[in-house]
């Protein structure tokens, strides 16, 4: 690298939808809508960049639950039905708006074209196989695919180490099955981390239970050859020791009382750069020209209005103008690329080292919640590539070239409210955790009592019970 190289931009996108297939239509729509608005448009952007000679270098989590749904033949049938249904609703809206509001009729025609094109992408471009499309990008080195907890269980709250071990092992196994190679990194659900400690369930009904020893999350990862995970900025800021300079522009090894098989690296989400994107109040997605997520028309639930003002009652929203949104997203992409460069330059001038800025988001923010967001990503990645002073890198690429130096002891934490467990463990859901803890103990007993029995029927029963525990933990 020449002396004008200031560092790397590492983008992590976490993709997950709960298992909703064969549920009621409203729940199934979660994955169908996200596929039409996020996953296929994102694949289109990634392949478009590759065709333009740009390797996007995005690190992308595909949760095991999402991968299993992508591979399910029922999903493929339902997605085709969904796109045809939405295109039909758009045609109905065109007839309704004809002679009454020509701009809304124009928008309805765009929606018809949109769903027709997404179905064509699905059937013809990707051969109804999104897993294969992702695997192709990874095989050519353009993206890195990470895994996640098998059913997106919140690790710090699980009461048995065997539960965490099973979540991690099954995640690696599922990922390897679908993508042809084991993952090097994992997204901890909700960025939930717990160090090695003496622990007891934080529930009223378990208050008399004495604490018992628990392994740190990093031990499970190391034992399963997982080399890195992601935490939020404020999780790092609470880490020990206090006299180590802690910054999101660096990586760290996770320390603990146990000696892991191999050190586990932690990447730290840059709060300011992430806030600029995910905040609806202060970030780009809340700009008034963008398509409003909430206001929808009639049975087809198609959207024809812009945000206008993000505190405005839906009754007063103005109509959406795609051309205005296109101009604004290019402005926002240029601003974000400038922020990336300036952050890396400032760090370089202060430390003399070319480091990284890492931003991490739920993938569904782009396209689904922020309709124009996938196109915004296209311009950001394109313009990062065009700047010789910085570069895009996957987590593994950066980690291999820049091994961590300092070790930190992370506290029990998450990226939720107050960066603790309270979002997922509180009085309102205590009854849920009581049932999960009871089921964990039952499965542990059954495994110890019957695992050595050579009985195929009993084996099937035990495996089904374990599957149901996985689902309960989701």
Q: What is the CATH fold-level name of the largest domain? A: 7-stranded beta/alpha barrel
Identify the CATH homologous superfamily of the largest domain. Glycoside hydrolase 38, N terminal domain
User: Which structural class fits the helix and strand makeup?
Assistant: alpha/beta
Tell me what the CATH architecture of the largest domain is. Alpha-Beta Barrel
What number of structural domains do the residues give? 2
Radius of gyration: 23 Å
- Indicate the low-confidence ranges by residue numbers: none
Number of strands: 12
CATH class of the largest domain equals Alpha Beta
Number of helical regions: 14
Name some characteristics of this structure.
474 residues, alpha/beta, 7-stranded beta/alpha barrel, four-stranded mixed sheet, 14 helices, 47% helix, globular
Written account of the structure:
- By secondary structure, this protein is of the alpha/beta class.
- The protein folds into two domains: 347 residues, 7-stranded beta/alpha barrel, CATH 3.20.110.10; 46 residues.
- The chain has 14 helices and twelve strands.
- The strands form three sheets. Strands 1, 2, 3, 4, 10 and 11 form a six-stranded parallel sheet that branches.
- Helix 1 crosses helix 4.
- The two termini are 45 Å apart.
- 43% of the residues are buried.
Short synopsis of the structure:
With 474 residues, this protein is of the alpha/beta class.
Task: Give me the secondary-structure topology.
Layout: E1 7-15, H1 25-51, E2 58-62, H2 64-71, H3 73-97, H4 102-125, H5 130-139, E3 143-148, H6 161-179, E4 186-187, E5 197-199, E6 212-214, H7 217-223, E7 228-232, H8 233-237, E8 252-254, E9 265-269, H9 271-278, H10 322-351, E10 355-362, H11 373-386, E11 390-392, H12 395-401, E12 407-408, H13 430-450, H14 456-473
Parallel strand pairs: 1-2, 1-10, 1-11, 2-3, 3-4, 7-9, 8-12
Antiparallel strand pairs: 5-6, 8-9
Helix pairs in contact: 1-3, 1-4, 1-5, 1-11, 2-6, 3-4, 10-11, 13-14
């Amino acid at each position: 690298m020449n002396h004008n190289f200031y560092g790397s931009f590492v983008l992590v996108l976490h993709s997950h939808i709960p298992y909703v297939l064969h549920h009621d239509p409203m729940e199934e729509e979660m994955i169908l809508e996200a596929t039409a608005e996020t996953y296929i448009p994102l694949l289109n952007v990634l392949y478009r960049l590759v065709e333009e000679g740009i390797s996007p270098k995005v690190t992308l989590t595909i949760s095991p639950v999402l991968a299993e749904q992508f591979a399910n033949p029922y999903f493929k049938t339902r997605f085709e039905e969904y796109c045809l249904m939405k295109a039909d609703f758009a045609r109905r809206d065109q007839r309704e708006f004809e002679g009454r509001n020509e701009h809304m009729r124009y928008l309805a025609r765009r929606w018809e074209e949109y769903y027709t094109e997404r179905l064509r992408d699905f059937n013809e471009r990707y051969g109804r196989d999104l897993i294969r499309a992702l695997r192709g990008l990874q095989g050519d080195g353009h993206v890195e695919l990470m895994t996640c907890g098998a059913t997106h269980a919140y690790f710090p709250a699980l009461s048995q180490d065997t539960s965490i071990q099973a979540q991690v092992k099954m995640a690696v196994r599922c990922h390897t099955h679908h993508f042809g190679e084991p993952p090097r990194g994992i997204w901890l659900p909700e960025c939930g981390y717990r160090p090695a400690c003496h622990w007891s369930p934080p529930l009223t009904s378990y208050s008399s239970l004495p604490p018992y020893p628990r392994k740190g999350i990093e031990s499970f990862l190391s034992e399963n050859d997982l080399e890195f995970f992601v935490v939020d900025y404020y999780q790092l800021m609470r880490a020990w020791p206090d006299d180590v300079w802690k910054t999101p522009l660096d990586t760290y090894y996770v320390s603990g009382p146990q000696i892991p098989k191999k050190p586990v690296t932690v990447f730290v989400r840059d709060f300011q750069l992430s806030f600029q994107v995910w905040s609806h109040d202060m970030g780009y997605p809340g700009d008034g020209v963008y398509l409003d997520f909430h206001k929808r028309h009639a049975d087809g639930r198609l959207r024809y209005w812009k945000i206008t003002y993000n505190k405005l009652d839906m009754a007063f929203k103005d109509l959406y103008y795609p051309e205005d949104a296109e101009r604004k997203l290019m402005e926002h992409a240029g601003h974000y690329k400038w922020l990336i460069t300036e952050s890396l330059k400032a760090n370089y001038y202060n430390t003399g080292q070319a480091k990284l800025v890492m931003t991490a988001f739920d993938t569904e923010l782009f396209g689904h919640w922020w309709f124009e967001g996938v196109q915004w990503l296209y311009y950001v990645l394109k313009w990062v590539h065009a700047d010789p002073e910085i570069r895009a890198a996957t987590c593994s690429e950066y980690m291999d070239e820049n091994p961590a130096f300092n070790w930190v002891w992370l506290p029990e934490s998450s990226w939720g409210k107050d960066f603790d467990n309270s979002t997922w463990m509180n009085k309102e859901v205590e009854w849920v955790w009581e049932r999960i803890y009871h089921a964990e103990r039952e499965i542990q007993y059954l495994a110890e009592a019957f695992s050595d029995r050579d009985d195929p029927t009993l084996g099937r029963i035990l495996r089904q019970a374990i599957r149901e525990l996985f689902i309960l933990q989701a």
